[in-house]
Amino acid sequence: MVLYFDLYIPPPVFLLSPYFFQGTSEQRALVRDILKAGSDLYAILSLPKSASDDDIKRAYRKLALKLHPDKNQAARADEAFKAISKAFSCLSDPDKRAYYDRTGFESSSAAAAAAASQRSPGGRAAGEPIGLFCKAVPVNDNMGTIQTNKIDFIASGVYIFFVPI
Prior knowledge:
This protein has two domains: 13-117, Orthogonal Bundle (Helix Hairpins); 129-162, no CATH class. Helix content is 50%, strand content 5%. It has 165 residues and is mainly α. Helix 2 (25-36) packs across helix 5 and helix 4 (53-67) runs antiparallel to helix 5 (77-91). The model is unreliable at 130-136 and 146-159 (pLDDT under 50). It contains nine helices and four strands. A two-stranded antiparallel sheet has the order 1-4. A two-stranded antiparallel ribbon has the order 2-3.
């Protein structure tokens, strides 16, 4: 008796979606390049850091015509259009541009959000050992109060850690 198994592996779902192939290959490449630039506003607009205000306006208008959702049918073209609009709004204002050149963030609120995202819920930086490897468990101290904050545990010296193995 011979058993025969035919293994069929379907292609990834995104390749089957007609949404994936919308727009021309040039439009898809443009969207991919802009989204790949990430948070570098100069790279989004394909400009050097020494670009003048006229260069910034010219680059924005050129990209806005190519990426407007009514003209560009590529997947995620709306995200790319929002990215170039955000880059232009920051780089066209002299104060915002100076702040971005100094810090790498669009505004102080963006800088604060980035700093907060790198902190763990316990108030420690994400790379510190207590935040990564240990979990504090609330215990009853000698005064009858239950402490639940890691910082309170460390300050009072009453703490228990479970370290994952």
